[in-house]
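Section 5: illustrative case.
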């Protein structure tokens, strides 16, 4: 079984909206529905779990019914951090998933879920036990020295930028979250499933990525998302 765990537990203050950014309407459809549709339409996804901000569960169920997201099986509450939200989602699946089932973790505010990217994440996870969406890093990276100058750079060919979707065998990621929260490893700050697993000693394997896989954090990101939708209406605006 392949289960998508979509994380939509944030409030999104940086977007400057009165509602969580995952529920902002874009062309008469909430952002979270664009995200869920990517998993709904993919033939290899068997079920979807939504980790949702409290107070919005009923709204999410109603939108899922309205837009035909019938793979959505569970909605659970998010935590105070992104790591707590993922943990809540993983722990909720403990009586629903087998150890070798694949869990695909994805940010609810990355609404352009590319079918080929999702397929490759699943393929690589089946082969290696995990897979993280990645792309080469094309900018120059310099190490900050004293806030006004630098004498050191990091060769960009040694870097990869990763995002969601990320896939893990359920037994591995479930054990990882138990260990991480018990030992307080990889759960603070900007930590995510991928960084946590590395801190726990796991080797991660790359899967295909897409430049369109934008994360909606600011108003500029929202405008870029709208532009992508207009550019490829047949694919996204259905």
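Designed sequence:
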């Amino acid at each position: 079984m392949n289960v998508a765990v979509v994380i939509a537990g944030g409030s999104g203050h940086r977007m400057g909206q009165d509602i969580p950014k995952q529920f902002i309407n874009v062309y008469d459809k909430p952002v979270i529905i664009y995200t869920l549709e990517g998993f709904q339409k993919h033939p290899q996804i068997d079920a979807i779990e939504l980790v949702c901000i409290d107070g919005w569960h009923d709204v999410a169920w109603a939108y899922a019914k309205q837009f035909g997201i019938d793979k959505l099986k569970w909605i659970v509450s998010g935590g105070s951090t992104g790591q707590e939200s993922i943990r809540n989602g993983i722990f909720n699946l403990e009586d629903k998933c087998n150890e070798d089932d694949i869990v695909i973790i994805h940010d609810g505010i990355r609404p352009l879920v590319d079918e080929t990217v999702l397929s490759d994440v699943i393929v690589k996870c089946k082969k290696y036990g995990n897979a993280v969406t990645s792309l080469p890093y094309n900018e120059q990276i310099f190490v900050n020295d004293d806030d006004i100058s630098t004498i050191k750079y990091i060769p960009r060919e040694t870097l990869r930028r990763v995002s969601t979707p990320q896939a893990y065998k359920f037994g591995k990621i479930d054990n990882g979250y138990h260990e991480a929260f018990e030992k307080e490893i990889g759960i603070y700050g900007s930590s995510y499933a991928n960084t946590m697993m590395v801190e726990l000693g796991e080797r991660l394997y790359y899967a295909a990525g897409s430049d369109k896989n934008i994360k909606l954090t600011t108003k500029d990101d929202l405008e870029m998302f709208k532009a992508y939708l207009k550019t490829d209406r047949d694919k996204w605006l259905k």
